[in-house]
Amino acid sequence: MSVSSAEAVETASQDQTTPPQPLSAAPRSWAESWPIDTSLPRLYLPNDTTSRAVGAMEVYTELMHRIERALGATPPTTFVGSRGLFFLEPLVEVELPTGERVAYGPMRTSMLTKRNLELILQGRRIAGATLGPLAEHPHLIGQQRLVFGSCGILPPNDLQALRSQGAYGALERALLRSPPEVIDEVVASGLQGRGGAGFPCGLKWRTTAAAAGSPKYIVANGDEGDPGTYADRMLLEGDPHRLIEGMAIAAYAVGATEGYVYIRGEYPAAIASMRTAITQAREAGILGPRMLGSGGPFDLRVAINGGAYICGEETALLESIEGRRGMVRAKPPYPAESGLFRKPTVVNNVLTLASIPWILRNGARAWKKHGTEGSPGTVVLQLGGSLRTPCLIEVPFGLSLREVVSGYGGGTPKGLKLKAVQCGGPLGGLLPPRLLDTPVSFEGLKAAGGLLGHGGIVVYDHRTDMVDLSHHFMEFCAHESCGKCTPCRIGSHRAEELLQKVLDGEGSPEDLDRLRELAHTMTWASLCALGGLAPSPVLSALEHFPREFEARLKRTGGGA
Amino acid sequence: MAAPAGRVPLPRVASDPLPVLERGTPTVALTIDGVRVRVPEGLPLIEAAKLVGVEIPHLCHDQKLEPYGSCRMCLVQIEGRGGFPASCTTKATDGLVVTTRSTALTRLRTNVMDLYLSDHPPDCLTCAANNICPLQDEAADSGIRKISFVGERHESAIDRSNPYFDFDPTKCIVCVKCVRACGEIQGTFALSLSGRGFDTKVIAGDGGPFGGSPCVSCGACVSVCPTGALQEKTIIAAGTPTGSVRTTCSYCGVGCQFDAQTKAGHIINLQPVGQSPVNFGHACVKGRFGWEFVNSPERLTTPLIRGADGQLHHASWEEALDRIEERLNALRAAHGPDALGGISSARGTNEENYLMQKLMRAAVGTNNIDNCARVCHSATVAGMMETFGTGAATNSLSDINLADVLMVVGANVTEAHPVTGSRIRQAVARGARLIVIDPRRIALVDDADVFLQLRPGTNVAVLNGLGHLIVREGWIDKDFIERRTEEYNAYKLTIAKYTPEYVQDISGVPPDALWKAAYLYSHSRASMCLHGLGVSEHKTGSYGVMALANLAMLTGNVGKPGTGINPLRGQNNVQGACDMGALPLTYTTYQKVSDGKVRKRFEEAYGVELPTAPGRKIPEMYEAMLAGQMRALYIVGDDIAQTDPNSAMVEQALRTLDFLVVQDIFLTKTAAMAHVVLPAASYLEKDGTFTNGERRIQRIRKVVDPPGDARADWEIICDVSNRLGYHMHYADPGEVFAEAAALTPLYSGATYARLEGEGLQWPVPNDRHPGTTVMHEKQFPRGKGKFAPHDYEPPGEEPTEAYPFTMITGRGLFQYNCGSMTQRTKLRALEPEDLLEVNPADARRLGIAMDERVALESARGKITIRVLLSDRVAPGQVFTTFHYAETDVNRLLSSSADVLSKCPEYKVSTVNIRRLQP
C-alpha cells in the first residue's frame, strides 16, 4: 500500500481513455443500453483510483452484467469516493428500502453467483464478504470523520445531493459574518496547516487579509508527493466541493478573488473530478462574480504539477503556477504577504482548507473538543507498509502510534515483526518499536524525533535493511532536490554517495562521521525543508540501528 | 553627484553601490557584531553589515540582483531566532542583534565550501580567474584545508562560441547569478537552468552553444560570475589586469561608465561601473566589448597629404600643418572666411567641440560650423526650444525607475540604446506600464501594454490624436495648463479634428489602441516619454517633438520626477557638441550669435571680432559647395560621405571643394576624399568630457597612448589655429573646459574636480549647485510652456507605383553608425552585413526568399542587399540598418529634411524591390 498511489495511477491510466473522467461518471466500457429498473435497490460503488487499482471496475462490470442477465435490467447505481478501507475494496453498498446501506467486500467476481446476486439485492448475508452497515464497522466506528464525513458516502459530483446534506452551508454562514469574524473563528479553532509545517492557519489568513496588494490569491496545495500519502487524492476525487467551499470561505475572509487548486499530474482522476466540481460550482453561482449571490468575486482554476516533488513546497509551487521552473524561493517574504505573482497569497494544504467548512459550521469550540492541547481537531492518517489493514483514518490527535498501527492498521502481517515506523514521508525520522507509545500529534512526534508531515505512516518489518532504506531516502531527496541551495544540491548527492559506499561494504567509520557532519550542514544550512529534513531518516537510522551500519563497514586488517 | 530630487543617496561602502531609496524611507537601528548601526528599513542584512565595515561571506548575492539565498555562505545568527538565516534574504528590522562570525557559523560555512569544492576543479593556479575569483577568496576566508568528499564531479567541454567570452561549465558553481543577471538586468532571458539536483546546470537558449542562443553578448553574466566559468577571452589570453582607469563609453548617448583595465600599457577589458547612475554596472555588447578597434592595424598613425599623383602619402605633422596653413589662408584671402567651413564631431569631447567652434569663429572668422547632431536630434532641439525653451532631455535616465507609465516613441531602445532598453524592461518587470509607438514591431513591443503601429511619417497625426482623446475625455491637467502654459486654446482648435477615426485613416492605428494609450499616459502619477530618431528624422520632425511636448504639458507630465520629454541621444556627445556651440547659429549652450550682448561677451573672451553673418547648417553647406560658394572644409570625426542622406550628392559636393581636411582615426570614405588627413586619438587615448543624453557631464580619461603620431583632436585643433595666426595654448583639456564653462551659464558651476564620481547634470549655474536631475520644476526657460500645435503633413515621399515600398533605416545592436569602429572588431561576426527586413506577405507576392540578394532602388539610386523575412515590419514597409559602406544605403535617400532644423528624413523614403535573378 505504501506505493498505492503510484500503482493506482498506472492501473487507472490503463483503463481510462484521456481525458480522464471524474469518478462519478460511468466508465465507457459499461454497456449504455442496459435498462435500469428503478424498483431495484440502488448500488453505491466506490470508484476512486484506489478502488480501481484493486479491480473494482472489473467486479462492478461483471456484477451489472450478471444482474442484467438474471433480471433483464440493472439497478440504479451511484459512484462514490472511497471511505479509505482499502482492504475491503472492491466494495459494493446496497441501499435498502429503509434507506440503510449495507456493504459487501472485498468482492471478487467468483462471488457473483446468481444466488449471491439475489441476496445482495436484498441486503442479506453472503459468504465471505458481508460487512453490514459500514458506519458500524469497527474501523469506522472509532473515527471522527469531520473532514472525510462525506467521502465514500455522497456522490462527489452531485451538487444537489451534496447541498441537501449541508454542502456550502458553512459558506453561506460565513458570508453572513464579517471577514475578520471568520478569521477569528479559524484562529480560535487552532487549526494547523496539514501540509506538514503545522503553521496556524488563522494567523496566515490574518496576515494575508492585512497585506497590501491586489489581487489576492488562495492556493490549495494538492501536490501530495510524500510516498505513502493519499488523503488529498481521496478528498479531491471523493469530495471536491468541500475543498471549494473551504477555499471560498478563505477567499471571503482574506479578500481574495482568484484561486488555484494545484494537483500533481499523477492524479488524473482527481484533476478531472476537481474540474467538474469547479464547473458545477460556477454554474450554481457559488463561484463567479458574486459568491452565492452575496459574496465578492471568486473563481478557481486547476494547475497541474509536472512531476517534481519539490513543487509541494509552497514557494516552488507558486513558481510552478507562474510557469517557471519549480524552485524554492527564500522566505521571507512569506507567500501570505508576497506569494503568487508577488501578491498576497494564502497557500494551504487541501486538508487544511477542507477542514474549514466543518469548523465554520460547528464552531471553533467544537473543533477544539477533539485532539490535544498542542494539536486540536482531527488528523487524517494514511497507513501503509507492512500492515494487515492499510487504510485512511480520521481520528482525533493524541492517539498513540501503537493504537494507530496495531489497531487501525491491524499490526504487521503474520510472521513479520515491526521494526520501525516512519511518519511524515521521506523527510520523517524512523521510530523504533520502543517509541510506539508516542502520541500522534505535532508536538508528540516532534519530541520523539519524528514528524507528522502530511500524516503518512509507513511500517517496516524486520526484513528491512536500514542502511538500504537510508540510502533509498537520500537518493529520493537527491533526485528531488530543486538544485537551488548548495547543502541540498551537492550535499544530498554526497550523502547518497557515502551511503552507497557503506552499502557496498567500502565505508569507514570516518565516512559515518562525515555523513553525520554533512547531515548537520544540510539540517542547518539548507534553504527549505527538503534539504533540512532530508537527513532525518538517515540520522534516526544511525541512532536507532547503529549496528546495521557498523556491520557494513569495510573490515580493515587492524580490526577497527 | 546630485541627489535626484525626492531621493536620498546613501553612503557608499566597498565597490557595490547602495540602493537609492525613496526619501522618507524609515530607518531602523540594529546591532551587527556588537556595533550599533542605523540603516534604511528593509535593507538586506548583508548590505547593512557593509555599513559597519563587516563583509559577510557570500557567493550568490549581488546588490544589483534580487536576493536569492542559494549559496548559504552568508548565514548569520540572530538573537532570539533559531537557526541560521541567510543575511542576503533577511531584511533589516528594528532591534535585531546579528552575529556574523561564530564557531557554529564557521563550521557551516566551511562545510558548505567543502561541498562547493568537491565539485569544482582544484587547479586555481592555471585558472584565468586566479586572484580575481570570489570563490577562491571565500574558500580562503572559510579556512578549509581539505576536501572531504571523493565523488562524482561534473565535467563538460568549454563553450567558446561567443566571440568575447568563454563558458566553462566545469567551473560553474550554479550560483545562478548569470541567469538572474540576464533576466533581471539585461531583460533578455537567454540563460536558464536545466536538470535537477546535483545535475542542475546553466544553459544558454535551449541548451546549445551561447553563439546560437538569444544571447545579446551584453556581458552581464560575465560581470557577475564568481568563478572562472564565464570569463572574457582577453583575460584568458592576457591574464589578470593590473591597472584601471575610469572613463565614459563613446558609442551611444547613454554615457555608460567603464573601468578600462590594463596591463603593461595595453587594454585588457572594459568593466562597467556599478556605482554609475547611468549604467548601474550594466553595459551593452558594443560598449563592453567593442573597443578592440583602437588596436586595429588600420588606424591612422601619420598625417597623409594628397600628392601631385592624386594619391595620399604619409607626411609629417609639420608638412601637413604647413599645407593646411597655406591652403586655408589662401582660400580665405581669395573667397572670404564664409567660403570656409567646419564640421565638428558629436563623437568628440566637449573640449574639442568648443575649440572647433572657436577655431572657425575666432581663427577663421565664420559661423560655418555645424556638427553631426544636425542629422539626428536637431529637430528635437528645435521642437523643445519652441515649446519649453531648451532643447535637452527634461529628466534623467534613472527617472525611468520612477515613472508609472513609459511612452517610447520612434526608438528601438533595446538595440540602439541597449542599457536604457534594459532599464525600461526592468521598470516594466516591476510594474510600470509601457506604450510603444513605432512603425516596426520592435523587441520592446513584447513588453508593452499597448503598441501603436503607425505608418512611417504619421507621428504628428497620432500624437495629436492622443491629445484629442485626452481633451475630449477630460483627462487633462487643468491646473498645470493654467499655471504653467500658454496657447492652450490654439492647441485645442488644432487637435479638434484628430478623432480616432481620422487618425486611423492617416496612420492605420486602431481607435481602441489609441484610446488605451491616451488613457494610460494621462492616468498615472508620472508618465515619461522617451523618443528617438523615429520622431526627429522626418520632414515634420520638429512638429512631432512639439506634439510630444504638447502632450506632456496637457497632462502635467513635465517638471517632476519620472516624467518629461527625453530624447535618446544617438551618439555619445551629441548633447555636448551642441552645448559647446558647434552650431551655426549659437555659441555655447544655445546663446544666439545674433544676440549682440552675447557676441560681445565672446569677443571679449576671444580677443577678436566675431563674425555676425549666420552660419550654414550641414545641408546648407552642401548647397553652398555645389553652388561654388564654399571652397574649403575641415571635418573632424564625421564620415559624411557614408552617413549623410543622398550620398551621391554629398560626394559630388565634396568633390567641388578646393581643399578638404579630414581628421579621424581611420581612413573613412570621407577621409579618402581629403587633401589632408590628420590622425586622431580615440576616446581611450585622450582626456576630456562627454555630455550624455540626460545632460550629465562626465569625464573621459586617457587609458593608453595613441598609435604612431596620432594625437588628440584638441591638440590638433590648437595647432591648426596657431598656424592660422590665432593663438590657442592649453596645458590640458581641463583648461579648455574651464574656459568654456566660464562662457556657458548652464555649465558654469562645473569643474573637472567636481566631475569626479558621477559627473554633473546641467544646469550647474554655480560651484555649489548640485546639478539638475529634473528640469522645469518651477518654470520653463521661456517662462510659460507654449503649446505649439501643428497639423499633420505627409512625409517628403509617399509610395508610388514605381516605388511602392516605404523604407525605414535605423541602427542594429551589434554595429554603430558608419561602422568605422565596430567593423574593426569581432562585432562584425555578430552582424556581418546590412539586411533588408521584408514582411513575408510582401516577399511572397514578389517571389523573394529568405537570404536572397535583391536590388533596392529609389529615385536617387540603386543598391543590392540581402533579404531578411520578418514580421517586425508591416506589409508595404521595409527596414534596413545603414552600417556598411558596402551596402551604401544612404545613396537611396532623398534630401528631404525637417523644415525647421534641416534634420534629414532618414526614416521615410520610397523604394522598389527587384529580384536580381528571374
Give the SSE layout.
The complex is a heterodimer of chains A (560) and B (918).
Chain A: H1 4-15, E1 43-46, H2 49-53, H3 56-71, E2 77-80, E3 92-95, E4 101-104, H4 114-122, E5 130-133, H5 138-141, H6 159-164, H7 169-176, H8 179-189, H9 201-210, E6 217-222, H10 231-238, H11 240-254, E7 258-264, H12 268-283, E8 299-305, H13 314-321, E9 345-349, H14 350-362, H15 364-368, E10 378-385, E11 392-396, H16 401-408, E12 418-423, E13 430-431, H17 442-447, E14 456-461, H18 466-480, H19 486-489, H20 491-503, H21 509-525, H22 529-533, H23 536-544, H24 546-550
Helix pairs in contact in A: 7-11, 7-14, 8-9, 8-11, 10-11, 10-12, 11-14, 18-20, 20-21
Chain B: E1 7-8, E2 21-22, E3 27-32, E4 35-40, H1 45-51, E5 77-78, E6 97-99, H2 103-118, H3 134-142, E7 165-167, H4 177-186, E8 191-194, E9 201-204, H5 220-224, E10 230-232, H6 233-238, E11 243-248, E12 257-263, E13 266-272, H7 285-289, E14 304-306, E15 312-314, H8 317-335, E16 340-344, H9 350-364, E17 369-371, H10 378-387, E18 405-409, H11 413-416, H12 418-429, E19 433-437, E20 450-452, H13 459-472, H14 478-484, E21 485-486, H15 488-495, H16 500-507, H17 511-522, E22 527-531, H18 533-536, H19 541-554, E23 565-567, H20 574-579, H21 596-606, H22 618-626, E24 632-636, H23 640-643, H24 647-655, E25 659-664, E26 676-679, E27 688-691, E28 696-700, H25 713-723, H26 733-742, H27 752-755, E29 760-761, E30 785-786, E31 805-810, H28 827-830, E32 835-838, H29 840-846, E33 853-857, E34 862-869, E35 877-881, E36 909-915
Parallel strand pairs in B: 3-6, 16-17, 16-24, 18-19, 18-22, 19-20, 21-30, 22-23, 24-25, 25-26, 31-35, 32-34
Antiparallel strand pairs in B: 1-2, 3-4, 5-6, 7-10, 8-9, 11-12, 12-13, 14-15, 14-26, 27-28, 28-29, 31-36, 32-35, 33-34, 33-36
Helix pairs in contact in B: 9-25, 9-26, 10-19, 13-16, 13-17, 13-19, 16-17, 22-24
